[in-house]
Amino acid sequence: MSYTLGLHEVADGTHAYLQPDGGWGWSNAGLVVGDGASLLVDTLFDLKITQRMLDAMAPHTRSAAISTVVNTHANGDHCYGNQLVRDSEIIASAATAHEMAEVPAAMLAALNQAPGEVGDLFRHFFGEFEFEGIETVLPTRTFTGRFEFEVGGRAIELVEVGPAHTQGDTLVFVPDAKTVYTGDILFIGGTPVVWVGPLDNWIAACDLICASDVDHIVPGHGPLTDKAGVVAIRDYLVYVQSQATERFNGGMDAWDAARDIALNGFAEWGEFGRLAVNVDTVYRTLNSQHKSPDVVEQFRRMFALEQGH
Questions:
Q1: Is 281 exposed, middle or buried (0-12, 13-18, 19+ CB in 10 A)?
Q2: How would you classify residue 186: left for phi > 0, otherwise alpha for psi between -120 and 50, otherwise beta?
Q3: What single string gives the DSSP state of each residue in 191-210?
Q4: Averaged pLDDT, 127-134
């Protein structure tokens, strides 16, 4: 299936909404159409692109309105559009709901508008998005562990696999379509960013997907994939964990370690500078006293790595 902007049917009544190129903020979402009701998996980074997605889904949702929304995690590119579907039941893990309240869109709007180097830095990553006027609309129902429900007669299974990418990552399984929406447990063609960790949890989430009865895998970013794509992400995480641990044990500073690790074939993936965050997360996992830099410095380091500094 071609990796093009818009709604793609991956199985009967089961769709992926894809946003190339899958880089920072260009996330995917999903639509599961049942009898008279639909499930939306994730909203998008701002109101304009979320509305564009809802318009593309309208031929399906006119007769099967979106009754339920699942937010797979708390990053804004998967939930900032919630106010456009606020009349639906919105489900997320309890950890996701807590984290969503901590990073309002107003914070990113302020960073994008900041003077000098900070504003330049954040516009480099997020300048194409409009964060003004976005209200934080939190989930109306939360769960921990696993949660099963029906939408229009179709069974949906939610499995919490975080903390990993964020505090509360959730996989969304649609058993009758052998489909899983992974949120940001999968970046295909792009580099995973482990904001929270530990990496072991993310590796376990990849193993869970590979052990599941799924034929259609919709990542949080990038084109549709198969289990080989999941294994590639797992391999990256295992490699970074081992390389970072080796340098931690040798007494190397986390930022020096990130600049020292050779990415080999993984360097061809987009956003490879995310290695800086991932190495720092390994250090934090190995030493609870390790102090991670603030978010502005994290983005500075990612930018510097990609510029070869």
A1: buried
A2: beta
A3: ----SS--HHHHHHHHHHHH
A4: 96
21 and 27 Cβ atoms separated by less than 8 Å: no
Of the CA atoms within 13 Å of residue 261, those in its CB half-sphere come to 31
The single-letter code of the amino acid at 286 is L
> What's the pLDDT at 1?
74
Q: Are 217 and 28 in contact (CB under 8 A)?
A: no
Q: Where are the beta strands (DSSP E) in 89-162?
A: 89-93, 141-143, 146-151, 154-160
Amino acid at 14: T
Spatial separation of the C-alpha atoms in residues 146 and 190, rounded to whole Å = 28
CA 209 and chain centroid, separation: 15
- Domain-embedded: residue 255: yes
* Residue 22 falls inside a structural domain: yes
Task: Using pLDDT thresholds of 50, 70 and 90, give the confidence band for residue 103.
Answer: confident
CA gyration radius, the chain: 19
231 inside domain: yes
pTM of the model: 0.98
Torsion of CA 82, 44, 202, 204, to 10 degrees: 70
Cis peptide before 207 (omega within 30 of 0): no
Q: Which residues contact 232 (CB under 8 A, 6 or more apart)?
A: none
- Strand partners of residue 38: 33, 66
Domain count, the chain: 1
- CATH assignment at residue 66: 3.60.15.10
Domain membership of residue 1 (yes or no) is no
Residues in the chain: 309
- CA nearest to 18, candidates 2, 6, 30, 9: 6
148 sits in which H/E element: strand 146-151
Distance (Å, whole) CA 71 – CA 93 = 8
Domain extent at residue 162: 6-306
Token pair recorded at residue 17: 């909404």
- Residues 51, 55, 60, 64, CA torsion sign: positive
